[in-house]
Design goal:
By secondary structure, this protein is an alpha+beta fold. It has seven helices and eight strands. It folds into two domains: 3-78, SP0830-like domains (Alpha-Beta Plaits, 2-Layer Sandwich); 83-178, Alpha-Beta Plaits (2-Layer Sandwich). The strands form two sheets. A four-stranded antiparallel sheet has the order 2-3-1-4. A four-stranded antiparallel sheet has the order 6-7-5-8. 28% of the residues are buried.
Length: 179
């Protein structure tokens, strides 16, 4: 049975607090098996016989909106996709390992339009660099994210689509544990 990761937006941020045992229960109610959460930021690992990730996303989003009372954008990736994202290097090793740098990965519902990608790349500065590959956008922040002029909200607005962001170390840990 395929194993998936649901990267959820708006879980335990912005005043929305959801206990992980409750979230696991919601996924089990949907009929998923082997449900686990990974840190309390909306990463749910589960098995499902379905091979249609778009229908899984819609099913989860609809149920969470009804149950939690607010929109929870959901981005499903298969374990091979998570592993590929985790091992992809959009920037040089020197840039990725530079002191104070952090790589963030934004999960998107689809590949952004070329025009949107060009808009995102235009935000590059000496502190912020961007790269888009498939359904993920990569943001190399060379200082604390709170000190950057760029933000996750700007990424969503610039690309014109929903997104949820994770630190690359979180994505690598998920890939390592579940792949």
């Amino acid at each position: 049975m395929p194993k998936y990761v649901a990267f959820l937006r708006a879980i335990n941020v912005g005043g929305h607090t959801v206990k992980m045992d409750y979230l696991r229960g919601l996924f089990e109610t949907l009929g998923f098996s082997n449900v686990e959460t990974f840190i309390a930021s909306g990463n749910v690992i589960f098995d499902s016989p379905s091979k249609n990730t778009k229908s899984l996303e819609k099913k989860i989003e609809d149920y969470l909106r009804t149950t939690l009372g607010y929109e929870v954008a959901t981005f499903i990736r298969t374990m091979p996709e998570v592993a590929a994202v985790a091992h992809y290097k959009p920037f040089s090793d020197a840039e990725l390992s530079a002191d104070g740098s952090a790589l963030y990965i934004a999960f998107l519902p689809g590949r952004p339009a070329d025009e949107a990608v060009h808009r995102l790349l235009s935000f590059a500065t000496e502190f912020d660099a961007f790269h888009v590959r498939g359904r993920e956008a990569y943001w190399l922040c060379r200082k604390k994210i709170s000190e950057s002029d760029f933000s996750g909200a700007m990424l969503v607005k610039t690309l014109g689509m929903q997104a949820t962001m994770r630190n690359s170390s979180t994505v690598r840990k998920i890939a390592s544990k579940y792949s």
